[in-house]
Write a structure and sequence with these properties.
Elements lengths: L4 E3 L10 H16 L21 H7 L5 H18 L6 E6 L5 H6 L4 E2 L4 E2 L4 E2 L10 H9 L7 E3 L14 H11 L6 E6 H10 L8 E3 L4 H11 L9 E4 L5 E3 L4 E2 L2 E2 L5 H8 L4 H11 E2 L22 E4 L16 H12 L5 H8 L3 H13 L3 E4 L4 E4 L4 H10 L8
Protein name: MarR family transcriptional regulator
Organism: Marinobacter salinisoli
Length: 408
């Protein structure tokens, strides 16, 4: 996890450097004017010439993170933080924007006694009840039935409530127990949108949440190399399709020759707002294979010796066909999207319950958003979710429409 965990109030947007942008523009012009370059150094005249990577090659270059390894890293980081703080709280909060991988990691959480590196008393994952609509008395009874005497983890707090008059009781009772220090030892994962709501609802909650550090250009490059299993012998090589500059490897030399780098990673960090999952989704959309007709180069051409899984081309972000919000003034679109982000996904009945619009309007809005690839339906959980590639545009639109947005 590049950058580790930081206090939530230290999170900063990874700005795109103006100086770097100008420098890259000048470098781009110099590459275009350069004469006598080999075909291996030339950009492609048409991005249409670049075929999609096969699924296996894409997974080799940009695989999913190992969420079990991430869980172990989070456990280690939280343990170190507790040791560095006098009178640490028993319940730790991990707040992160959607697609950061925190939920997936906490599902795989394993409680360890890190002092002895042996299994501690068995911890457990707390799952929500099927019916989230309950009275305060029902919520107290439900929490009384949970064994909080042993370490516990909640992968996603958004699963425990609904934005409804009767849908807040479970989280309210949990927060009351945390404030009274009767909730035992636990870890709560919470999406940034869910946290935005509850931090406003219960501003005096005694919690000091932490969050994964945003991916800067440097962090992003090293993280992408780590995911691909990069090593000194055979690094993943990725170059811009428009000017031939290098994106990966991040090192200054390749095969003994100095290489010039593109500003793509800075742009990717800014476009994804430093979000791990969104950055990875954009990266997967941008990488391309080399056309087959390019394989007839001489045998001593170093690029011809590389397999598709270790060499690829990168399409500029502004050339990608990404999901875009439907051109509609219907406020129902914003209500649906905001509800899905607050609750990290909802089934159809719960979505209808929290948005407060007619079935007809809801069905129309959902269909419109699904056709635009802004939301998707998960058969596994029978829930609607926003898409990772659509998320940046979704957040911009919700903010412009006046909806309360997260701080990430």
């Amino acid at each position: 996890m590049p950058g580790g965990l930081i206090p939530i109030d230290q999170w900063e947007f990874p700005e795109l450097s103006v100086r770097r942008s100008v420098k890259d523009a000048v470098r781009h012009i110099s590459v275009q004017l350069r004469g006598g370059v080999s075909r291996n150094e030339q950009p492609f005249q048409s991005l249409d010439d670049l075929p999609e990577l096969s699924e296996s090659d894409r997974n080799a270059v940009a695989p999913d993170p190992d969420f079990s390894a991430l869980a172990a890293t989070l456990a280690d980081l939280l343990w170190r933080q507790k040791n560095d703080v006098p009178n640490p709280r028993n319940v730790s909060f991990l707040v992160a924007p959607p697609f950061s991988g925190v939920r997936e990691a906490l599902v795989r959480w394993s409680w360890l006694d890190l002092d002895t590196d042996t299994d501690a008393s068995a911890g457990w994952v707390i799952t929500p009840p099927k019916n989230l609509l309950m009275s305060d008395a029902d919520a107290i009874e439900w929490w009384n039935e949970q064994d909080l005497s042993r370490p516990w983890v909640i992968p996603e707090l958004a699963d425990f409530w609904l934005r409804h008059m009767q849908g807040l009781a479970l989280v309210r009772e949990l927060f009351r127990r945390i404030a009274a220090d009767t909730a035992g030892q636990g870890v709560v994962g919470c999406s940034s949108w869910c946290w935005q709501f509850w931090a406003s609802y219960a501003p005096d909650l005694p919690a000091a949440p932490c969050t994964p550090a945003p991916l800067s250009a440097s962090y992003l490059g090293h993280w992408l190399e780590y995911l691909s299993g990069d090593n000194d012998e055979e690094p993943v090589v990725a170059r811009m399709a428009d000017d031939g500059l290098y994106v990966l490897p991040t090192r200054d030399k390749l095969n003994g020759k100095k290489i010039k780098h593109s500003g793509f990673l800075s742009e990717l960090a800014a476009a994804s707002r430093g979000n791990h999952g969104v950055a990875l989704a954009l990266w997967r959309s941008a990488i391309r294979a080399e056309p087959e007709e390019g394989n007839d180069e001489s045998e001593d051409d170093s690029s011809a010796e590389k397999s598709p899984s270790s060499c690829c081309w990168v399409v500029p972000l502004d050339k990608l066909s990404l999901p875009a919000m439907p051109k509609s003034r219907d406020r129902a679109l914003g209500l649906v999207l905001h509800a899905l982000l607050l609750h990290d996904g909802l089934d159809e009945d719960s979505l209808f319950l929290v948005v407060g619009i007619s079935k007809h309007d809801l069905t129309h809005a959902v269909a419109l958003l699904q056709r635009a690839d802004i939301i998707r339906y998960s058969d596994a959980g029978n829930r609607w979710h926003v898409t990772d590639l659509g998320y940046p545009d979704i957040r911009r639109h919700l903010q412009s429409w006046g909806f309360p947005v997260d701080g990430f």
